[in-house]
Amino acid sequence: MSAISVPGLAPRKRRGAELFLLLLALIVGLGAYVGVGLGVTGDVPTDVYRLGGGLALLAVLAHGVVRWLAPYADPVLLPLIIALNGLGLAMIHRIDLDLADRGSETGPFAGPQLIWTATGVAAFIAVLVVVRDHRRLQALTYTFGLAAIVLLVLPLVPGLGVSINGARIWVSLGPLNFQPGEVAKVCLVVFFAGYLVVKRDALALAGRRFVGIDLPRGRDLGPILVAWLLSLGVLVFQRDLGSSLLFFGLFLVLLYVATERAGWLVVGGLLFGAGAYFSYLTFGHVQQRVEGWLDPFSDTDRYYQIVQGQYGMAYGGLLGRGLGQGDPVLTPFSYSDFIAASLAEELGLAGLMAIIVVYALIVERGLRTALVCRDVFGKLVATGLAVSVAIQVFVVIGGVTKLIPLTGLTTPFLSYGGSSLVANWAIIALLLRISDQARRPAPAARPMHQDDATAVVRMR
Amino acid sequence: MNRPIRVMAIGCLLMFLALLLNANYVQFIHADELNARTDNRRVLNDEYSRERGAILVANTPVAKSVPSGDSFEYLRTYPSPELYANITGYYSYLYGARDIEQVENGILSGSDPQLFVDRVIDLVGSEPPTGGDVQLTIDPRAQRAAYEGLTALAGNSTGAAVALDPETGAVLAMVSVPGYDPNRLASHDFDDVKQAWEELNSNPAQPLRDRSREEIYPPGSTFKLVTAAAALSRGYAPDTLVNGSAALSFRGFSYQLRNSGGGSCGADKITLTQALAISCNVAFGDIGRQLGEGTLRDQAEAFGFGDSNVIRDLPSAISQFTAPGADDLNEPETAQSGIGQFDVAASPLQMAMVAAGIANDGTVMRPYIVSEVRSPEVEVLEETTPEALHEAVPPDVAAELTQMMVAVVTDGTASSVAIPGVAVAAKTGTAQSSAQRKPYAWFVSFAPAERPAVAVAVFVQDATGVARDDVSGGGLAGPIAKAITEAVLSR
Fold this sequence. Notes:
The structure holds two protein chains of two kinds. In chain A, a hairpin with a 2-residue loop joins β1 (161-164) and β2 (167-173). The model of chain A is unreliable at 1-8 (pLDDT under 50). In chain A, α4 (110-130) packs parallel to α14 (418-439). Chain A is globular and about 75 Å long. Chain A has helices at 15-40, 48-69, 77-101, 110-130, 141-153, 180-204, 222-238, 241-259, 262-282, 284-294, 304-316, 339-372, 376-400, 418-439, and strands at residues 161-164, 167-173, 176-178, 206-210, 213-216. Chain A is mostly helical. In chain A, strands 1-2-3 form a three-stranded antiparallel beta sheet, with no helix packed on it. A two-stranded antiparallel ribbon of chain A has the order 4-5. By secondary structure, chain B is an alpha+beta fold. A six-stranded mixed beta sheet of chain B has the order 3-2-1-6-14-15. Chains A and B meet through α8, α11, α12 and α13 of A and α1, α2 and α3 of B.
């Protein structure tokens, strides 16, 4: 901590930089909204003040709370997610217009999404207010573990859970549909981190050595097997391939980071391979996803969505059709699962790459927070949160762009969906909390420049 | 524990790198292939809301886009639908495009690389791209003469006619009867479009098939021109005496090849010129037998038989001397092939090429129908330059054949097409299609013989309302050929 000890130089909070970046982020979101208006109707939309004002207000609010409660937090994360959230809102609004044009019964989505954004910001503020020190969460390790299990099981409760598009991952509360898995993701990260902080020494004990890698001891395989079975359970009972992948990947990464044993990655990789192969053999929906990935053009009706996604991206080309100028609505779920393809169609390869880079920056800031964090629990939580964003983005954008088989996961901050938005805002709040803790100077030491400051025992 | 975090950072970096590379693959490398797929609605929708260029005949549109006032913005219309449908094709949202609409889609829709500058200007000015125009070589009067001649035949006769400029290969007229109305397929009333589509496809007369180039039929006696060309190129002269008897027998076969009237061709030995003038089957069967399958095939292919791409700009059927994959011909079959029967089959376009090749000193020019393409600013982007396909016969043989064909008009079966003051060279044909059907009537000609300006082939397939024995090339098809010729020459 030598940097902070320079006399007369306060540690830099960087809140001004955050405000400036926020302005740029708002320009991205509002510019996209105006672009949609210009592209669809040829006019600047009259309600740009409403939506723009709403978004700006939320951004400023979030910024103010960070200034107040986490002044040393990373200044880049908040602007990045505001940019994504704004872009997502504009794109959802743009798809609303086309859906309405076609007399579709679904939608509009932009209004609810703005309300969900507000809810997300509220969750963000709540996390910063309630969690003043992330280390306190460690005491609640098993509470979070239990919460995660409850949240995961919730959709399976008869009368409460509903099945939408084949996946039983929704809970219906009156008019609201909620995806508890998104929140469970955050709970699981905290639980895994808290659990591994305690158990990591035992799990780090080496067993047999095999081609230069220390494999874990057989008796330590319990936890990873439980995580594996849990993930398979999600796949079998909820038919949710994406979440299953995410949960197991998350546990594996944290196990590796906590123990520094690459052997766990080997064990986990084998388990993952076995699970993937087993589910491919057993489940029709997994087979269909794989076939649709290998050759979607063999049956363009059956693999309509992925084919349309490909067409949309190709149609977008390098620079895109321009907002409002493409046909993203031809792709089913263009506003949620396939929003990456919709954005790629209208903003082009350039836009899609920019979006991917924004996600990469979010993950990079998260991992940087983990690096500078001083406590093991914080390191694990930050790593887990950052990696969860990375895995989720890879799985969903990779699926939509046909890099890997398609699995249903939301695109963080972009796609329509309340639970995902709220959970992801909470994730960023936790990351900011940890980074604030990490970058904050050590509590001001007592003034020590008395004459006898160096004396071991004060003689008076 | 920072080392594993750094390892994870590298892992995440690789994942994002894979996403970026894949995005480049889909949106850049693979994009053209994806955009070219026919079930890609986006590209279709985009094209449909553009102002598509016109297809012009003598600077008058035969297909044009007019503002539609609905969500597609433009409607494709065809002012003379039946007259040009076999050439323009249709431009349908549901069933795609066909013929010139399909082949010249790049220019018409504005996506052709030749229109790149226009597209950039449109992009900068934020204007939707517009298409360029395609000008056809068709002579509207010849086209109309051919169409009216064919539709004026009694009842629901079907047939086709093709007129070429022998010197360049430019198509002056190309008609297929019955035609169809592409307006109904281009309509935005999709229920009616579907109904029209079903009607067209269930119609036994197959209006969507262009009889002038997409179908092949036995050419009958008009093929004797090919046999004569082969003979003259291999030592025969117009006054060489050939077999004019009543029947041709073959050793080892009971079959006899006979003349159409059953009698002899006037004498046991007649000249080649006489044989062509009266279309003597025995003479040409005998010549065909003597020349052999290989020689006849070579000669036919020199005129364009066997070429899958005889006409530039439009799809065409392959005219054949023998059926694809067939065994070698035996003697009677070779003789029959020499008079355009057995498995010989040609499109009317191909037979017009035979006439045009003889007219053009023996050189067959590749037919073309697009004379020029223009940018939306009516600037000529590309003008078609005529291209020689083959030298079918040497010029002296062509001159001899021309004289023999003139004799067909002055002294033979084609007297019906004589035009006062103009030397017309012609050949009739009446081909047996099958025992149950009426024979096909053929007529090929060119004029003026000394400096040919137009070569014509007329084909009447189903001469309803005409007694079987009255079907003849000279009687049914000849007057149509004459009308087309006159229309071109009166320019």
